[in-house]
Specification:
The chain is α+β, with helices and mostly antiparallel strands and 477 residues long. It folds into three domains: 2-45 and 54-168 and 182-244, Porin (Beta Barrel), CATH 2.40.160; 247-406, 3-Layer(aba) Sandwich (Rossmann fold); 447-472. The protein is 22% helix and 39% strand. It is built from eight helices and 22 strands. Strands 1, 4, 5, 6, 7, 8, 9, 10, 11, 14, 15, 16 and 17 form a 13-stranded antiparallel sheet that branches. β12 (169-174) and β13 form a beta hairpin.
Length: 477
């Protein structure tokens, strides 16, 4: 469900503006998303005299500015949009839209242009183009180009835009799902049938084909004119046939149909009070509802050694195409034909564990994909772990990031995480200074300075021994 505003409820071009595709989700950047205030600024010019046969497409030069904010895919989305409409002689016009926004705390910018013929009583024909950039994981870039049209019949309107979408390939964390964007060149469309219950209130139903996914859209728009050209507008749209996992399972299905294999990893074996998806229940559901055409296997720690070996042998021979498992596949599993891994509740795993799991794929010549699925809202540390997985596959960088996030724990104690109890030093911040201290300590122990007396050295060793014995209860052997 998307909530938002559109800059104009009336039958104008302003509601068919730039589109941004985010992994099968669509943001209408020419309007706005969520209940918001939309400030409108009109800049009329003195229009030339018109004959009775000529109806201008645009009432002089006019511009609109809007500021908006709200939620899309459970992430904050807010920004501003500006539009400028220009008359180009009788019944022709042009419009330019620009949007600057923040989505999922990342910059998003879009620019769109329209060139059209329009008769306010009949309809509209034109061409449309847009370009959108989203500053996420190296950048998502996508462009659209194609014809647009609208037909007016009383309170009914049929409107749509279709054409070619083209973009780049990258990976980004969206709504808790690590999504692989493969925005290749292909067809897109967005078509609506709208009915105006009032001049400022319409409902609509339509079709969306974006990023290779079909969906039925249902929604409405309601505008509340205020004083001095300011309008408050509400927008809502729901999609049928589109869900959070459609792109994920679609990617798994394409890999398996191409002859490859896949892992789907869950944190627990059975359902528990933690409300986590479990391997056994999801194995049954996926086998019946999602991947009924493929052979699935189940692997977890409660199976006997013989049962585990049997499942793994079938997976190695490709008799099982999709292996549903817990973290028992973390190490010691080598299937070069496996090219995709989906990890559910990825926020529950440690960074090193995620890296080990990802290492089960990419062992052959084919390109591999790891998809991390987590909640939309997670702790800063959990998000940092997932973003580290997006940023690098280098084991040394992963280990360093893990050290920064968790700390090394105690070297001689029982704590396995957290920073050591230094009074002043910070292990991460002062690493260079601590390296120097380590070198000097080694010199003191192995080749002491002759200028330091034996009494002073003995006093240092006695003090160290006292400190370590008091803290950790060490005994002298």
């Amino acid at each position: 469900m998307a909530w938002g505003v559109c800059m104009s409820i009336k039958r104008r071009l302003l509601c068919t503006t730039a589109l941004t595709v985010l992994g099968g989700w669509v943001i209408f950047t020419g309007g706005a998303i969520s209940p918001a205030w939309s400030a409108e600024l009109n800049l009329p010019t003195k229009a030339p005299p018109q004959s009775n046969a000529c109806v201008p497409a645009v009432d002089g030069i006019n511009g609109k500015l809007s500021a908006w904010g709200g939620s899309f895919a459970d992430n904050a989305l807010y920004g501003g949009t500006g539009s400028l409409s220009l008359p180009l002689g009788c019944e022709f016009g042009a419009q330019i839209d620009g949007t600057v926004a923040s989505f999922d705390n990342r910059f998003l910018g879009s620019v769109a242009g329209h060139l059209f013929w329009r008769n306010p009583a009949q309809g509209l024909l034109g061409v449309y183009g847009s370009y959108t950039s989203w500053d996420q994981a190296g950048g998502v870039r996508v462009g659209y180009f194609g014809p647009e049209a609208a037909w007016y019949a009383g309170r009914w309107t049929l409107e749509g835009v279709a054409g070619v979408e083209s973009g780049n390939s990258t990976t980004a964390l969206v709504g808790g799902v690590l999504t692989n964007f493969d925005l290749k060149t292909r067809f897109f469309d967005q078509v609506n049938v709208a009915y105006y219950l009032q001049d400022n209130f319409k409902v609509f139903a339509g079709h969306r084909y974006l990023a290779g996914e079909n969906a039925l859209a249902l929604g409405g728009e309601y505008g509340i004119p205020l004083s001095h050209g300011v309008m408050a507008s509400l927008f809502a749209e729901g999609r049928i046939g589109e869900d959070r996992y459609r792109g994920v399972w679609g990617g798994v299905r394409r890999e398996v149909e191409a002859g490859h294999q896949a892992y789907i990893v869950y944190p627990v074996i059975e359902e528990s009070k933690l409300e986590l998806k479990a391997a056994m229940e999801e194995f049954e559901r996926l086998g019946h509802e999602v991947f009924s055409k493929f052979k699935l296997g189940l692997l977890h720690g409660r199976l006997s050694s013989e049962e585990k070996d049997d499942v793994m042998q079938k997976f190695r021979k490709n008799e099982v195409q999709i292996l549903v498992a817990t973290t028992v596949v973390e190490v010691g599993v080598d299937v070069p034909n496996a090219t995709v891994m989906v990890i559910e509740h990825a926020e529950r795993f440690g960074l090193s564990q995620l890296h080990q799991l990802r290492g089960r794929i990419g062992r052959g010549a084919a390109k591999s994909h790891c998809v991390l699925v987590g909640p939309t809202r997670m702790t800063d540390e959990a998000r940092a772990r997932l973003e580290a997985m997006v940023r690098t596959s280098n084991g040394f960088e992963i280990a360093e990031t893990d050290l920064e996030l968790r700390g090394p724990g105690e070297f001689f104690g029982t704590r396995q995480a957290g920073l050591p109890e230094f009074r002043v030093a910070n292990l991460i911040r002062d690493r260079a200074v601590l390296e120097v201290a380590k070198t000097e300590a080694a010199k003191f122990a192995e080749s002491p300075d002759p200028a330091v007396s034996h009494e002073e050295r003995d006093a240092v060793w006695a003090r160290l021994k006292q400190q370590w014995q008091r803290k950790y209860g060490l005994v002298e052997a």
